[in-house]
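Protocol step 4 of 6: record predicted structures for both targets in the notebook before any analysis. Target 1:
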Amino acid sequence: MFEFKTDASKTNLILKITCVFWIFTKLFCYNLWHTDRLFPVVPPFDFLENIPNYIHLTLFYFALAGIAFVGFFPKNKFVLGFTIVVEITSFILDQSRWQPWEYQYILTFLFFFFYHKNPKQFINYFSFLLAIIYLNSGLHKLTGGFLYTVWEGMMLREFFGFDKSLIRNIYVHYAGLSLGLIEFLAALGCLFAKNKKIYALLLVGMHIFILALISPTGLNYNSIVWPWNVVMILFILIVFYNATSTISFKNLLSGYNKIPFVVLGILPFFCFIGLYDNFFAFNLYSGTTKHFSICVDENKISSAYQPFISKNRKICGDKNVISGNDWALKEMNVVIYPEERFYKGIIEIWKEQNPNSEAQFYIYQYPYKPEDYVEYK
């Protein structure tokens, strides 16, 4: 099981799985790929603003068709390159699309474009990508933000239903750090160990738990990453379960191969000092990213916003609140892009579209004390 005679057969299977799950995921968050929605479209550059909706939709459908074609005819380099260009163009038109799974799938296509005639090198880079995802994800969980918001809040209180006295036990509290540590060590094993089976099984077990946590039988949260967790299990088993050799850093550091090595192996660590975007550094479920909320008076905004309004006296007092993340999840089925410049872009668009709303805007971070809520005018 999961044994392959050649790297070419392994590469083809990885590409086909990527195509299937990429199409499914894009369809599952359809509202992300057009502009006919309430949630603002915030491109990274001003000159990309006001691109007509038909351009966004055309790119979306071309991308779907291209991904499907590549799945059946992976050796057609023209269609492969065209699909990559179309997807990257769509990607840069709205920062909400800068999701970690989208970034991973684009990189997979890029690796195949450059190394389709060298399957061994493709597997080398794809293995490196997977290991780096877990390495960074594990490191970002070794924080107080993860312990309080994800470990205690999501897992112990909401999922397992433990009472506060147990959760507040110091040993139980710090036990949560073991999750990030296990993920980090498993990533190191996939990078450097000769026999990777045990490390692969640890990561598979982690994904099974995540699926149980966020599935309909658990917290029923962030459904767009359910298929991503499934596909990661498949990739781990294909790439690492029966692997008996280490990743070749000699190849990773040769010639132009240094470029993806720098992008994946070096730049993500700048996220720890605030100089690199969280999702590009695979900072996932760590509890350390900034949050965004809008305090509103329901009588001064359009009724179209009603599905996204909730109560939160801690932030808004007598006003109601639109949580940026809840808004993104309900309308686009993706989490909000957790960067301060993105939030400021939303604020500017909100002011233009709702000039008389008298809304208040807050960007905040763990530990969520009232004095930590910064209002943006």
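Target 2:
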Amino acid sequence: TTTMPDIFEDVHCCVCDNKNSVNFKVLYQKEKFSVIECNKCSFTFIPPYFRKQISYENYKDENVANAVRNGNNFVKIERHKLRYNLIKKYKASGSLFDLGAGWGHFMLTGQMLGYDVYGIEISEQPYLYSKNDLKLPVDHIDFFDMKEDKKFDIVTMWDVLEHIDKADDVIAKCARITAKDGYIVIQVPQIDSYFAKRHKDNWKMMGLDHVNYFGKKTITQLLKKHGYEVKTIKSSFEIKLFIMYTILPLLKRLKGNKKQTLMETNTTIKSSERQQYFNTFTQKPMWKLKLYMKIHNLIYKTLEFLNIGEEMIVVAKKVG
């Protein structure tokens, strides 16, 4: 007889510390993984059992790096200025630490706006690009190995926390390096958003590389546990991701295999292809780009005002 795998092995809720496997239930059963919910606090996540093979050391390859290199930084910088407009309401200047700096354009924008920036990135190609191409103060280390001898006025994580198995340990360390009265700013997919509720287990944000699915209540509870007080939660709709993960697969599906679902088509597209497709939008004349960004910002702010988005931006102050 074959023994059933114990998907609740080493299960632990990072929000309320529930470790008792009987206090979890399977919310969605996908082909390659299960999404479970904590019965005590309703936090939704993928248990460690399915996550053993996931590594972010080589999350993006050289082809993606070359595609990023061929892109236009103007559009990316203008996009990040919207994020700084929000941050400025709480901290107009000071030291800023970006955890999971990616390709570095958020840090670059911060540097241009006068913030004292520093970041880390575990994935090699984005780190090399940030360090060598953009000349940013970025280190190629795991966050848990980073020294805690400096405190920052602002700690930021853009689309990072959903990837990390021990989200509570990450927030605990963030709290130790956040200055008193400093702020943490996090963007994560939002499980209680309109899109997530509508699409349920077919929500495109749901995948094995996303382990944590926070809602407003659970992110607030996690931050409070570590001495942060949530000041605002805003909806965020990433138009770049919409272009790369919705429009591109739609076009490919129309041209090719119409029998495939959008999700199936999405799994066949390489990251470098997505980036190159996005580049076609950014390689227009400057007057067109400026017009694009005006339209982009108008759409973004309207969706934010109407609370329409698949992600949320959380700003919380260190009070404890």
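Step 5 preliminary note on target 2. The first helix runs from residue 62 to 69. The chain has a mean pLDDT of 89.
Proceed to step 6 after PI sign-off.
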